[in-house]
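My hope is that you will study the record closing this message with an eye to the fold:
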Amino acid sequence: MATCGRGCLPAVRLCHRLTRLKTLQVDVMATSLKRCLTTLDLALLGVGGMVGSGLYVLTGTVAKETAGPAVVLSFLMAGVASLLAALCYAEFGARVPRTGSAYMFTYVSVGEIWAFLIGWNVILEYMIGGAAVARAWSGYLDAIFDHRIQNFTETHVMRWDVPFLARYPDLLASGVLLLASFIISFGVRVSSWLNHIFSAVSMAVIAFVLVFGFALADPQNWGAREGGFAPFGLSGVLAGTATCFYAFVGFDVIAASSEEARDPQKAIPMATAIALGLAATAYVLVSAVLTLMVPWHSLDPNSALADAFYRRGYSWAGFIVAVGSICAMNTVLLSNLFSLPRIVYAMAEDGLFFSVFARVNPVTKVPVVAILVFGGLMALMALLFDLEALVQFLSIGTLLAYTFVAASVIVLRFQPERTHASDGGGQKTDASSSDTTSASVTPSPGVVATATTPPSAPPPPPPPQRPLDETLTLTSPDGSEPKEYESFSDKLQLVERDRYHADGTGSGGVGGERRPTGHLKARWEPYLGRALGRLDPGQAVTLAVVMLMVSAVSLCSVLVFGSGPLRLPTWSFGLLLTLFSLTFLLSLALIWAHQQSPDLKTFQVPLVPFVPGLSILLNVFLMLKLSPLTWIRFTVWLAAGLLVYFGYGIWHSKEGLREREQQDVDVAARYVVLPSGSLVETVQSVQPEGQEHTHTHTHTHTHTDTDSTLAPNDHTHSNR
């Protein structure tokens, strides 16, 4: 057994390194960036990120090639699924107001390797988004001049017929990205004001399109003569929904900007709701106008709206639409170039990406190196790749990020609040907990034990200094077997759980007192307490989330492939569908049976875990609807990311450096629950082999039913 333990130790250490969580500073509002963005700034950034080529180009592409007039339903379904994800982003942006978006949210709740992969995919998401919008921008401008730019490039520069590449190098798209990158590097206020101007023009043009377009609408274009409302059937609507997610990618720019928001706790949720509501309304109405003005099968995918007005004989209206679309696409370019460097900056700041990208200009307060380098890479993609391939690739990265953020909300909501400090640093679960005071006992350097007290309670006196080699005991009335734990602060609530078991009321001995976060609710204790009693607080929820994800993938796989490629018999299809559906619902029920964190002052997703669970299910389903070629490209990109992580990130991770610094402290500690119910910390000096310990000290704090705080005066010392 010992040999097996020693042999497995490297694998255990590797798993620990891959799943370690990010430690936030005590003051989560502190930043080297400039907090200057208001709710209006954030909302317009979100609208600008969503209302661009998706409105002026993607509507025509999906309507003609995928869904027909039912593109209206595709945008509506994509908007609903995006709303579920947006709620999760809003909660995280308010609770953890740090730049990094989905990467940061995953890092503080799920683990390092998953956070890196999400961040790696978010980088690709923004690069593809910017490159695709730049090509759409170029196509619209080219349409105004009757495709003269394209003809000149193909004739006098070059043209190629290579799969996945554009027919010609789009020099105009590449140039506009380089220019926008240069402008973004001047600071966040410059970017915000430019976004305000372009957004105002875009919204005015949208209002014009809706009013004039509905006046030219012909209901016969939705009739049977033109193929009906849904010529591609339900499958086309669902496939169109997956592609239409590209339209709503931009709302996460709001959460990515939370570190530069003045009041992120209020501004992030409000700006997210405003931006997503306006964007979804615009997409649904404009797609309806477009398919009512002209038959869906005659649309020009490159410039659908402008071409529709040209064909109805209103060339001047088509010109206005083209100008408005260019302004809208400018806002998307600014949004992508605004968010991408901040994701890179967050990863570099944590040591998972090359440190040069963590440099912030002292004057402009923006990561200039990241802006210019990744702006150049985005320009290279716009120069070479074709729009359709980029859009398909974009959807899968977006959906994966949405899935992990939804799972992270569940994990964080049921995770016991932890506060660690080392060398002046610390961790807080959210920004709203700044009103809560914490009493801490520091048994030795590098080891901190904390207990949270209500805001109204006076802070306990500081604990007395004591020798390195001593034992800390928290007594509770229980006779359970001794258990060893590595972290005192993580296991402090174990005594609380034992106290609940003892009185059986679920009130902790005090009438009406709620159970600690991550524990079973009192009503479920008689049914699930024996099965889950040995798990740490929050651990059962984490396992249930894993089960939720697996069952969601299995259920969606049966729905997507069961009657098609797999050709399952009817009885087998029904059996698997029932089995995985029950597993999915059982996972949700198991999570719901646990105590959530108390209501915070910041925004919280309603109906957790059901809303995030539904978001996970929808996102997985839409991912499986994407083409196999998209998954192949995605796999290649993930493999490249793993090379970067194992070649650089895992060795330079600041969390890893912090752990190694703590290991250098010449103290070893372990925590034991005695048969009497006491929680004991044993701290001993680390001696070289062959030397004996000369003495050991003990230090005891009593934990009673009526007072959960640490009593520094109740202690005993003994020499052994």
User: Anything to note?
Assistant: The chain has a mean pLDDT of 77. Residues 55 and 463 are 62 Å apart (CA to CA).
